[in-house]
Design goal:
The protein is of the alpha/beta class. It contains 26 helices and 16 strands. The structure holds adenosine-5'-triphosphate.
Length: 629
């Protein structure tokens, strides 16, 4: 029995339980605000179904499916329910793959259609060539077409498709993006598949549902609709915390579904909760109230600063922290104590200037100036596929004490490279010697660093078979190698050109930032976390980062024509996106929150922020106040 299962019931938990016993079953959407313990509700629901309906499910070889965001979260949830075999907890990708894996014929048909679609697209493009079409474009299209035709030919010989790090149809490999596109397509088009899913999983729960891909939600809803009361499909999420471009955000209730609100907040002090509610009031308007018992409620602290957006931001920020250390009653806000849980956590958007400050400016530029939208987003999140081999294998083997350290061998065993290869002529000792030499080589190259060391190290690690990277990366590093038929888009190629030209030292700085090991955190990466003291830095900084704008949110800066068009068409706009990001930031604070706005027009910004009511009547401090330090 863990603390999450035994946490006190909230009204939402009680309402949910009544649905879990229903006959017919009813599906639901639980809207649970920040700090409300949405995963706690999910775990309690899982536990309840196991206890109440476990023997029936077991007799029918049925399971409860629980879809969550990361492998780590999946393990935690499963442990919470005592690792019950009746509960299948997995990430969305592995859940979808488990569903579809037995349907190899359907997979093959989908792959064929997919390649044919890509061929057709290039043919249409070729028909529109004019005398001004660049030679390089003509050559790339011709080469891509040839590769796609080879893929089509080779894929018809594939006996079995498998799911791995990336896609290479010619070799029978499917990647993450294939799964997320293919499986919903197949579910939506196959009545049989929908029936099989419903009869295997009478309960399907989705955690952090705001981040789920819209097509996946549509597919799950189609399973529910066909099952007509035989299943309970439940989404646990918070539309206000949808801060990734790919997420569905709010999930509409279908006829007969229940909506369950969970407005408690168990995390934040009263003053912080005031800001959270103020930000949310212009979103979906849900008002959160403290879930803590009266004797555990604290007032907390709130500070607002408006400072000039100039070249001295870093110094000003240090100044703010020193001022807070002196004036707040919550102790030190200093940078060097942040990781001992004493100082404050500084939340910033990943900006070019933050990247510069932290020492990964070129890496940032490689992904943000050339990468596709999804690659940019994955970079900000720390999960971009070109970077994975460094995170999974290369940096860990370089950070190990020595070549012979047990972590080196353990890492290589997990890497999918040398040790997993089926080469019968290589005995364990030979493999070890080869691996040690290669690791020593890679460690020297990493220690040397310098421009281009990212590409150099990748090549070394790949040649020595220390890593098994995404086929796109293999195709880039070795165009005539094992994954020769993989097509790279120009965007991907440009991003990889810039990435491989970077200094590997930048990667270490980037990971330090992404893993929240520095006092700074990305506003995106901080989702799900909480800190006693938070400094939220609102800084538009670059004109061209148009996804978010705090100045527009507070009315300091005018909306562009495009923003206005998005707003009037009811599309997601810069205002909604920024409001949600701000909501996620301020709701990370447990006790004390400082909001620092950098603006070019300080007086105008101060007035606009006062008018927004976000301060709850708290005084807005400026440079002059800091001078009193
Ligand atoms: N029913 C409950 N009773 C008391 N405390 C609870 C309950 N549910 C959750 N908590 C506590 O509330 C805090 C916030 O929970 P948690 O981080 O799981 O919320 P969350 O909904 O995931 O938040 P966010 O979406 O903001 O990341 C935790 O400290 C947790 O232990």
């Amino acid at each position: 029995m863990t603390s999450r299962v035994s946490a006190p019931d909230t009204p939402a938990d009680i309402k949910l339980r009544s649905l879990l016993d229903g006959d017919p079953l009813q599906s639901f959407v639980m809207v649970a605000g920040a700090g409300s313990g949405k995963t706690t509700s999910l775990v309690k629901a899982l536990d309840y179904v196991v206890m109440r309906h476990g023997s029936r499910l077991s007799a029918r070889t049925q399971q409860i499916a629980c879809i969550t965001y990361t492998e780590v979260a999946a393990k935690e949830i499963h442990a919470d329910v005592g690792n019950s075999p009746l509960v299948s907890v997995s990430t969305i990708h592995s859940f979808l793959w488990t569903l579809i894996k037995p349907f190899q014929k359907d997979i093959a048909t989908w792959v064929h259609r997919h390649i044919e679609g890509a061929i057709q697209k290039i043919k249409e493009k070729q028909e529109e060539y004019t005398s001004r079409t660049r030679e390089a474009t003509v050559a790339k299209d011709a080469s891509d077409l040839e590769k796609l035709r080879a893929q089509l030919r080779l894929s018809s010989e594939v006996e079995r498709y498998s799911y791995g790090v990336g896609s290479d149809y010619a070799k029978g490999l499917l990647g993450h993006e294939d799964i997320i596109t293919m499986v919903p397509d197949l579910i939506l088009s196959s009545k049989l598949l929908r029936r099989i899913i419903a009869s295997k999983y009478p309960y399907i729960f989705v955690d952090e549902s705001q981040d789920t891909f819209p097509k996946v939600v549509e597919a799950l809803k189609s399973v529910d609709s066909q099952a007509q009361g035989a299943i309970c499909l439940g989404f646990f999420g918070d539309p206000m915390q949808n801060i990734f471009q790919r997420g569905v955000g709010s999930i509409s209730e279908e006829p007969g579904w229940q909506r369950i609100d969970k407005p408690e907040n168990f995390r934040s002090s009263q003053k912080v909760l005031g800001v959270i509610n103020q930000v949310r009031s212009e979103g979906d308007g849900m008002v959160q109230r403290s879930g803590r018992p009266p004797e555990k409620q604290v007032a907390g602290e709130l500070f607002f600063f408006v400072l000039p957006a100039d070249e001295q931001r870093s110094q000003r920020l240090e100044h703010v922290r020193a001022w807070l250390t002196q004036h707040s009653s919550a102790g030190s806000w200093a940078a060097d104590s942040a990781n001992r849980g004493e100082g404050a956590k500084i939340l910033m958007i990943v900006h070019r200037m933050v990247a510069k400050r932290m020492g990964f400016e070129h890496l940032y530029a490689a992904f943000h100036d050339s990468g596709s939208k999804s690659l940019k987003e994955a970079f900000d999140e720390g999960s971009a596929w070109p970077i994975r081999p460094f995170d999974d294998v290369i940096l860990p083997i370089c950070e190990a004490e020595s070549v012979n350290s047990p972590t080196v061998i353990a890492t290589l065993r997990r890497s999918g490279g040398l040790f997993n290869e089926e080469t019968p002529d290589l005995d364990v000792r030979k493999r070890l010697t080869l691996a040690r030499d290669a690791v020593a080589h890679v460690r020297r190259a990493v220690a040397e660093g310098g421009p281009g060391s990212v590409g150099k190290v990748l090549k070394l690690a790949m040649t020595a078979n220390l890593i098994a990277p995404d086929p796109r990366l293999s195709a880039y590093i070795k165009p005539d190698g094992q994954h020769a038929e993989v097509v790279l888009t120009s965007e991907t190629k440009n991003a990889l050109d810039a990435f491989t030209a970077c200094d590997i030292k930048e990667l270490s700085a980037y990971f330090k930032y992404i893993r929240q090991q520095s006092p700074y955190s990305t506003q995106h990466g901080t989702k799900g976390a909480e800190f006693p003291k938070v400094v939220a830095v609102l800084d538009d900084e670059e004109g061209n980062y148009n996804l978010y704008s705090y100045e527009k949110l507070f009315g300091i800066k005018e909306l562009s024509d495009n923003d206005k068009r998005n707003l009037s068409a009811g599309r997601d706009s810069v205002l909604e996106r920024t409001r949600r990001l701000l909501y996620v930031c301020v709701s990370r604070a447990v006790e004390s929150l400082a909001v620092v706005v950098f603006a070019s027009d300080v007086a105008g910004a101060k007035l606009a922020i006062e008018n927004s009511h976000i301060t709850g009547g708290e005084k807005i401090l400026t440079e002059a106040d800091l001078a009193s330090l």
